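User: Could you go from structure to sequence for me? I need the amino acid at each position, not a summary. Structure tokens:
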């Protein structure tokens, strides 16, 4: 089968399965199988695939057809210009989270910076890649397997981070930070978005929280105060409809200059305040 024919068939299969990114995914998966760039696939679209390549390609297409995330199939996800390893033990980094990174960078922190619930390490590695030696990067996660992925990414990118297995602040002793950032679980357990095709494959503990998705945010806001240097900011990502409630939590806990910023889609996404 020619490359062109394989791509056409694959796109039809994915479109029939209501995969919105059918064309992009087909190209990514064929590039993955053949080690050819998109440009090379176009230039060589009449080349014949080997039987092994064809079988592997359509096996991956059928996997994607089921809703299995493209990032898990490829084994990586691009985030803030970094290629990060992802596995089923980690949440897949989203473009919306780059809003959190950009706001954190605007504070221009110096010294110790902490990322709570680091997952792949996306946030802290993005900050370290931009701020380099001006910050001493720390990251925690409850999941040992997630920390193994984050540590791999740290070493692969040559961006040093101190990783600690911890339930939020439980293993941090009396450490204090010039900034704390977090993308915690914030979806209510009955959130309708959990039925989206890709979400059932991602770690549920990284997605949902009790008390309408706000329990972990409440805990972080309360406990962060003992770990923030005087006047240091806390930044938390949250759901598009949680801005008002999260601002109220920050204010109740005594944070100053509390505000919420929107993501590229115009939705409330990150709330911050200083203590």
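Assistant: Here is the amino acid at each position, in order:
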């Amino acid at each position: 089968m020619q490359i062109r024919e394989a791509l056409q068939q694959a796109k039809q299969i994915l479109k029939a399965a209501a995969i919105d990114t059918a064309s992009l995914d087909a190209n990514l998966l064929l590039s993955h199988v053949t080690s050819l760039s998109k440009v090379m696939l176009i230039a060589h679209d009449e080349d014949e695939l080997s039987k092994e390549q064809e079988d592997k390609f359509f096996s991956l297409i059928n996997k994607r057809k089921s809703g299995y995330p493209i990032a898990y199939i490829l084994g990586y996800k691009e985030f803030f210009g970094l290629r990060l390893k992802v596995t089923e033990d980690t949440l897949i980094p989203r473009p919306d989270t780059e809003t959190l990174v950009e706001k954190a960078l605007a504070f221009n922190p110096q010294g110790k910076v902490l990322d709570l619930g680091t997952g792949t390490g996306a946030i802290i590695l993005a900050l370290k890649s931009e701020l380099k030696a001006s910050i001493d990067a720390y990251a925690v996660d409850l999941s040992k397997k997630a920390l193994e992925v984050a540590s791999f990414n740290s070493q692969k990118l040559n961006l040093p981070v101190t990783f600690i297995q911890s339930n939020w602040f439980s293993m941090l002793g009396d450490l204090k930070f010039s900034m704390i950032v977090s993308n915690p679980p914030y979806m209510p357990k009955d959130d309708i978005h959990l039925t989206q095709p890709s979400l059932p494959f991602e770690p549920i503990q990284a997605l949902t929280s009790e008390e309408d998705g706000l329990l972990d945010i409440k805990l972080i806001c309360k406990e962060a105060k003992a770990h923030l240097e005087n006047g240091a900011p806390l930044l938390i990502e949250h759901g598009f409809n949680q801005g008002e409630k999260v601002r109220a939590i920050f204010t109740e806990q005594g944070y100053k200059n509390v505000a919420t910023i929107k993501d590229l889609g115009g939705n409330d996404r990150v709330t911050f305040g200083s203590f």
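One structural detail worth keeping in mind: The two ends are 63 Å apart (CA to CA).
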